Amino acid sequence: MDRIGVVDTMFARVDMGSIAENRLAGMEGFGERFKAVRRTVPGIRDLAVACRQLIERENCEVVLACGMPGGDDLDRIRAHEASQGIMMAQVLAGKHVLEAFVHAQEEPDPVKFTELCRQRVGAHAVNAYWLLYAPEELRKRAGQGVRQGGPDAGPLPG
Amino acid sequence: MDRIGVVDTMFARVDMGSIAENRLAGMEGFGERFKAVRRTVPGIRDLAVACRQLIERENCEVVLACGMPGGDDLDRIRAHEASQGIMMAQVLAGKHVLEAFVHAQEEPDPVKFTELCRQRVGAHAVNAYWLLYAPEELRKRAGQGVRQGGPDAGPLPG
Amino acid sequence: MDRIGVVDTMFARVDMGSIAENRLAGMEGFGERFKAVRRTVPGIRDLAVACRQLIERENCEVVLACGMPGGDDLDRIRAHEASQGIMMAQVLAGKHVLEAFVHAQEEPDPVKFTELCRQRVGAHAVNAYWLLYAPEELRKRAGQGVRQGGPDAGPLPG
Amino acid sequence: MDRIGVVDTMFARVDMGSIAENRLAGMEGFGERFKAVRRTVPGIRDLAVACRQLIERENCEVVLACGMPGGDDLDRIRAHEASQGIMMAQVLAGKHVLEAFVHAQEEPDPVKFTELCRQRVGAHAVNAYWLLYAPEELRKRAGQGVRQGGPDAGPLPG
Amino acid sequence: MDRIGVVDTMFARVDMGSIAENRLAGMEGFGERFKAVRRTVPGIRDLAVACRQLIERENCEVVLACGMPGGDDLDRIRAHEASQGIMMAQVLAGKHVLEAFVHAQEEPDPVKFTELCRQRVGAHAVNAYWLLYAPEELRKRAGQGVRQGGPDAGPLPG
């Protein structure tokens, strides 16, 4: 059975990993063709190693890395370092890690923020599935201005 | 037959990958000496791994990575991370990946923006072809102030 | 016996490594199931290599990297470089390095600052233990807004 | 015969690669002990892979990477990414790549700018030669405030 | 005999490498247990490869990388790239490279600046020795607020 990795953090204020797991559980082939492997780490800068371990030790074909960077100056640098680490991990492994980050400053209202997390993480769970089983779904949306966690921007006229 | 990789994103608002494919399809030797291998990924930070896979799994000799970074602060950092990933992928593989990015802030008018995409991606498709089959075309333009997606700056007097 | 690495610096103004060692010494299985291996380096940019050596030469399963970046502009860049090095070291090794940094600007009062160090380093020592022996403790705190060195932010409503 | 690599770009507005080649051609041993291997790539972010290829496929002992970064905000980030790529390429290969970049903002007058290119690229060509054949020339200038493309700053009193 | 590497630059305005060599020459075991291996490169961004070569070709156990970054905007970016390269070199090699940089903006008076170089480089030479032969000297200064090139900050109360 194929494996899709899901990592999230204790730092986040929404259980992003469970959103991802639930979304994957509703997809065709779940439990038969593929399953989800879940891990939780302390913070976003611990995600990269967890991704590498999920790929190499747990044989995951693709991984979702969920995080919620804080909003102050130090947090922004930490988010950049976390993203660079995730980039390094996936380039070295040659397998996709989809980074599903929701930044504290994106939405001040907590209820809307939680909804944003749900939409973005859910959409990236679909992307992970497509990368693995339905690349033609990605292909037919090329240049369509698709967004995760908000309305699509759509294609430009021209 | 040689292979030239083309990757683009769902996030972009112009089908940049098809521009590249069409341009390559009009070049000498297409379908005989070389063909294009196309992939679409969710966003720009997924390009690096796709490039690595196109080089290693699909044996592409050179890859075009097309993307359209958004215009806000987070987007700029994401574009930088995407570019660093593409750099890492190509340096590790030792094969060229031409980054054909058009930034949202480069042109406000949507029709002109689309035309800019067409010109830049098309010019980089030519560059990919030259890197592979006609390095002397690059050589004779050394220091000529060549631009992709706008008028050439030309050589300086002196 | 398993090994947990602890590295700190001469530059820091609090003996952060001893805080980590003391915390680890109070945990179940200390001296039987696992022990701590301690090193001190000059400054934060020397931590990455020390982490790599602790993992590869000393067989540490997980490492705590403790540091206290200064507050001026050059210090901030140095902290970023130190963190990038630690990221590179852990991604290449595929083992977790928990970065326990306390920045000079986080708290002006020296007594409160020292207490902040104690709390953060102590909490990361617990995290290191959990990563190794109790991943379910991390899992059940997923998305709970856990902080190291201050009150938890808690989960968002929604 | 040893090989010294020279790469430049179509983007630059001065034929920097030819400056380097001409300077090398005037040095002792040219054509007997060593020769130059020239390549041109589209832009500065294509230099890193070309350097790696010159080192690994063409057996160059040292490489000169010539480029002329533009002056706007995106150009500055691209220059930084290009330099990081060149750094990665040379560190991974363990061979020197001398980066001879002249930034658009360094000199507004086109004739003086071209002269600046000539001086800097020429001086780096000498440096490449010294790294390979005359390390004692570098050694005796240690701490002498040597500059490429302008008057030397000289040593400080003290 | 063990080897300690010393690299500096022609760009610097103080012969930093000789300061390091002289300091090492006064330490116990010099010429018997260990010796210094010296190199000079053009500028700070050439240090990383020289460090790698000193470690791999010259078998140095630890290296001192001395540099004097200039003070303008481009210089600051170059210093950051140089430091990232040194970080990459040491993490990949798994051996310590102590970066002894003195930035132009740290001290305007040339005589005091030269003295600052002397103190900082000398202190890092001692650190290199300690890393190799006396880790207990580093250990007993953990968290003591030790500085190189100025008065120690000392430990915080608490």
UniProtKB/TrEMBL annotation, chains A, B, C, D, E:
Cytoplasm in keyword set: no
UniProt keyword terms in alphabetical order: Riboflavin biosynthesis, Transferase
Keyword rRNA processing: no
Catalytic activity of the protein: 2 6,7-dimethyl-8-(1-D-ribityl)lumazine + H(+) = 5-amino-6-(D-ribitylamino)uracil + riboflavin
Entry's Gene Ontology molecular function annotations: riboflavin synthase activity
SUPFAM superfamilies reported for this sequence: Lumazine synthase (SSF52121)
EC assignment: 2.5.1.9
EC top class named in words: transferase
Recorded coiled-coil stretches: none
Pathway: Cofactor biosynthesis; riboflavin biosynthesis; riboflavin from 2-hydroxy-3-oxobutyl phosphate and 5-amino-6-(D-ribitylamino)uracil: step 2/2
Family per record: Belongs to the DMRL synthase family.
Protein name: Riboflavin synthase
Gene from which the chain derives: ribC
